[in-house]
Amino acid sequence: MTQSKMSKVSICGCGWLGLPLAKHFVQLGIETWGSKQAVGPALELAEYGIHGVALSLPLSLELPALSPPITSFFDTDLLVINIPPGRYAGAVEEWVAKVKRLSAMAKQVGCRKVIFISTTAVYGECQGTVDEWTEPRPNTLSGKAHLAVEQYLRTEWGNEVVILRLAGLIGPRRHPVRYLSGRQGIENGKDRVNLIHQEDCIAAISQMAVRWPHHPVMHLAAPQHPSREDYYQQMAQLAGLPLPEFINSPERNSKVIDAGKTCEWLSLRIRHADLLSERPDI
Question: Is the backbone peptide bond immediately before 58 cis, with ω within 30 degrees of 0?
Answer without folding.
Answer: yes
